[in-house]
Amino acid sequence: MSSGFVIACVGKPSAGKSSFLNAVTDAAAKVGNYPFTTIEPNQGIAYYPLECPCAQHHVPCKPRYGWCRDGTRYVPVRIIDVAGLVPGASQGRGLGNRFLDDLRTADVLVHVVDASGTTDAEGRETKGYDPLDDIRWLRSEIEEWVFGNLERKWGGTLRRHLAVKATVADTLHAQLAGYGTLRGVVQRALDLARLSDLQLEAWGTKDQLRRFVRCFLDVRFPTVVALNKIDMPDSTRNISAIMRKYRVPSDGVSMDNIVLTSALSEVFLRKMAKQKFILYAPGSGDFTTQETEPNSEEKQRLHSLDERSARRLENISDLVLFRYGSTGVQEVIRKAVDLGGFVPVFPVKSLNFANGSAKPTFQECVLVSRGTTVRECAKRLLHSETEYRGAETVGGIQLAEDEVVVEGRNIIRFT
Fold first, then answer.
1. pLDDT at 98
2. Interatomic CA distance for residues 213 and 288, integer angstroms
3. Is residue 330 part of a domain?
4. Does one domain contain both 154 and 239?
5. Number of neighbours of residue 314 by Cβ within 10 angstroms
6. What is the pLDDT of residues 267-295, one digit of tens each?
7. How many domains does the chain have?
């Protein structure tokens, strides 16, 4: 079970999307260095790390879904690997709009970019390719997809909505419903584009639509850029150029939503940990082997390494973990959920844990959109409005049904 939050992993073929999916989930996505390795979107469950209140309240924790380790809770979220896009996909090139349509269900996009410059725009092996081009053209393809759909429909829809005196926001909301778009998203995009005050009859020029679409993408499809293959020879130079470029945000990208990753390193570390060759917590900055593990009990559980595996682990330690602090893949998931603006909610049956409880607490954790009210949260959890009687949080504080759920008041007992 996931929280209902969906991350779409996008990018050109052979950028490392399938490896990224394997690195953050238990999925076994097909991996290959040739175009269209992925035909159907692979899916899996990734885990969003957050601070669990069990540590603060000193109570045992046994999550129903995911897990909790040393006060860090790993909450399941759904992630899909959308088959590789190529330039011209919005006009049907490659596998065309089929890929773009897969994005409709996503809350956030993760754009996996080959930072090494060893694959061209089509995903073929090359040398010296500039990964900045991938960031630009992928954003452009999604923009053309939305803009083209909106422009084709606009004339007839405008006439119909003028007849019933609809607002600009209502009209655009009707147009964009196929993208899973709430009216509030449309309104925020209008505000960002500074087009909120225009009357409907003054709307409809290409410049206005284009301006709106660019802001709509920022709100509806916030994007984390995962600069992948950071341990390759030319990656450092390319990463520096990309960071310089996005000191000033553009193309829907800023330095705040760029993460450096090595998906294959994470896959290998998880594999070695699963096979009991190393002790490694997903996303951490270090691992221990039989030779380096200080705990004698843990040491006995580990197998000794062959020379090849030891050498690869040493390279990962030097080129990835020591240099960058981690493989970056867990940071991508964390940043993606944060960009989506979700708040963790811990529904509990009793608030008596505050006085010390031996029973497992905080078994459930759900992610709700920022702005969700207590009543809306109850409706989602109880699956029925008629069952809702009230809600309270730690300290016996009663929560009004129209109160917005926020961190700090997100441990809730519904009655």
1. 63
2. 49
3. no
4. no
5. 11
6. 999 999 999 999 998 888 999 999 999 99
7. 4
Both tokens assigned to 165: 């005196």
Where is pLDDT greater, at 242 or 150? Answer: 242
Q: Decide: helix, strand or coil at residue 112.
A: strand
Question: Would you give the end-to-end CA distance of the chain in angstroms?
Answer: 24
Place of tokens 């909610």: 345
Which two tokens mark 405? 């759920």
For residue 190, give every residue at least 6 positions away whose Cβ sits within 8 Å of its Cβ, in sequence order, or none. Answer: 168, 169, 172, 196, 212, 215
Residues written for the chain:
415
DSSP result, 205-233: -HHHHHHHHHHHHHHHS-EEEEEE-TTST
* Residue where one domain finishes, among candidates 218, 249, 282: 218
Residue whose token pair is 């992993």: 9
Distance CA(71)–CA(79), nearest Å, equals 24
State what percent of residues in the chain have pLDDT above 90: 34
Q: In b/e form, how buried is each residue of 126-144, taking b as 16+ CB within 10 angstroms? A: eeebebbebbebbbebbbb
Contacts of 46 (CB under 8 A, 6+ apart): 7, 24, 25, 76, 77, 78, 79, 333
Q: Does residue 209 contact residue 147 with C-beta atoms inside 8 Å?
A: yes
pLDDT at position 89, please?
59
Q: Which residues contact 408 (CB under 8 A, 6 or more apart)?
A: none
Region 180-202: what's the mean pLDDT?
83
Write the CA distances from 346 to 243, 292, 334, 411, integer angstroms: 37, 38, 18, 5
User: Domain check: are 161 and 87 in the same one?
Assistant: no
Domain limits at 369?
342-414
Q: What is the pLDDT of residues 244-271, one digit of tens each?
A: 999 999 888 999 999 999 999 999 999 9
Half-sphere exposure (CA, 13 Å, Cβ side) for 77?
31
